[in-house]
Amino acid sequence: MAQNVPITVAKGDGIGPEIMDATLHILKEAGARLDIEEIEIGEKVYLRGNTAGIEKSSIESMLRTKVFLKAPITTPQGGGYKSLNVTTRKMLGLYANVRPCVAYDPYIPTKHPGMDVVIVRENEEDLYAGIEHQQTPDVTQCLKLITRSGCERIVRYAFEYAIRNNRKKVTVFMKDNIMKLTDGLFHKVFDEIAPEYPDIVNEAWIVDIGAAKLADTPGAFDVIVMPNLYGDILSDVAAQIAGSVGLAGSANIGAKYAMFEAIHGSAPRRAGQNLANPSGLLLGAVMMLVHIEQYDIAERVHNAFLRTLEDGIHTYDIAKEGKNPHTTKQVGTKEFGDAIVARVGQEPQRFKPVRYIAVPKQADRAGSVARPLQQRDLVGVDLFFYNPPGDPVGFGQRAEKLNGGGLKLIMVSNRGVKVYPDGLKDTLTCDHWRVRFQSDNANPLVSYQQVIDLMQRANSSGFEIIKTEGLYTFDGKAGFSLSQGQ
Ligand code: NAD
User: Which conformational region is residue 329 in: left (phi greater than 0), alpha (psi within -120 to 50 degrees), or beta?
Assistant: First the structure.
């Protein structure tokens, strides 16, 4: 007999306790091998003055069990409360957000019958690193950080997910025609890892046209992996167009820890009335069962759920007050759970039965892409100056006077567009100027002392330096972009 797996469970707020009770009842009756540690999170904890919404002892439970099944919580009105989801995601290093977006037509109306797309979103990097600065009165900046190791982890996760869930294709969405280095790295790593999975078809789309295609013809996609921002937006779009936001579950996965939940909130107006639909949380729990390798139970629960939907046993949100012709019986939260329990062991007849496949975990197949140490050389510097807008030629000529010590001005850009030398008269400028300096002789290498000397000259000539960016090459290849027009 396999051992029970300890998990941490939080019943949350609003409809949370009801949908969690129904979910746990189904898991138990389906034979899930779990030892449950219950913790308290959310509104009550926030209102006790804990701005994180979670006690230290509860965090310790999560660190101990490494698996967290979470019902939705209510974030109290008013400022000062930190998002529990962001806290948990960062604290536990949950790098992958996985959201299956499935249409359940004809039982739930949708414009896209048969839609079955899984969005795998990178969860930690990109523009969400939270590194923002106001640099001048006119200009704010947010750093978009994409790491090779982060790309490798999420791309590999997407392919592993595809195998484990019997899926046939993984698509990457990114915008490397514009962001050649950051999104370019995401795409490159995808291309490096994809051949390790010859049984899975792979393809790449630029995110704008890919998103349009997803909204129009979701049947063209299977698993889609993307950087954080695109994934944040498109996972909501995908759930919405599937027509089943109330039924979607999601997983947040890290190297050591994982959290599973419904994508909807705590629906306070429906709380305590035995009305809410527990399906979103239940499908989150099914992902948890797969994660802890109880594939047989995951399959039984998922198929019993599909059979219940097919049999027309629906909660109010699906029955639509008698308007859903496929509803045979409108039931409450508890009765819906009981109907699923009664169908454990049965398979759906109209939907395709779900099959989960036991494959070795990601860590076992890790063998990260070989990465020899690269030769890294400094070949110049971009100095960013605060200076009033207008007169790029005058500014360029003044900046050119900083030449010397083996460095010369290559170009000046403003808002990413080259404005000196040979800029266009009509280019709009702001108070944020970038001046690029590189070697003035046949040896392209530059020392950091040369950069410091240049900054000294700039400072004593009255330039206000906002920041600097080193220009590096890696194995002789430029690690920086040219500006438009350079
Ligand atoms: P919501 O998802 O709670 O509700 C939106 C609508 O969907 C409501 O009409 C609600 O009745 C309905 N609904 C949601 N889940 C349902 C279910 N399982 N069965 C039947 N109907 C359901 O979103 P909201 O009203 O914007 O937010 C309510 C609270 O939830 C807020 O405090 C918000 O901060 C919180 N919230 C929490 C999470 C989370 O914990 N992960 C996510 C989103 C919102």
Answer: beta
